[in-house]
Amino acid sequence: QVQLVQSGGGLVQAGGSLRLSCVASGRTFTDYAMGWFRQAPGKEREFVAAINWSGTDTNYADSLKGRFTISRDNTRNTVYLQMYSLKPEDTAVYFCAADTLLTALIARVVDYWGQGTLVTVSS
Predict the structure, then answer these.
(1) In this structure, what DSSP letter does residue 102 have?
(2) Is the N or the C terminus of the chain less surrounded, counting Cβ atoms within 10 Å?
(3) How far apart, in whole angstroms, are the C-alpha atoms of residue 115 and residue 122?
(4) How far apart, in whole angstroms, are the C-alpha atoms of residue 40 and residue 57?
(5) d(CA 102, CA 123)
(6) Nearest CA-CA partner of 88 in 122, 38, 43, 40
(7) Closest CA to 113 of 89, 91, 94
(8) What is d(CA 17, CA 33) in angstroms, rounded to the nearest whole number?
(9) Is 88 buried (19+), middle (13-18) or exposed (0-12) by CB count in 10 A?
(10) Rounded (5°) CA angle 17-23-25
């Protein structure tokens, strides 16, 4: 089992920035690709970004390219989501995710989920 513990959500004004963190434990961190998803009120959970085990390959939802950056620190078993130029429509619960394959995460197939953290962007 992999445990994913998230932190870093909160309230931010439109145009602001926020960084989410997700610390993994329980298994070898580098065995897993990591990703972020989000779910806005009344909407389905959607893919945000994913990164392969080494950090050399990333993938983003087309609508978020250029504003969001995913990264990982394998020495800290942590994956990050840096969000810039936030908009009210970015308001959602953000979920960290892990799977052994990057392609699986991109296909919205997830082995493990974090607990979710709320990001609220005020206008």
Answers:
(1) H
(2) N
(3) 23
(4) 27
(5) 34
(6) 122
(7) 94
(8) 24
(9) exposed
(10) 170
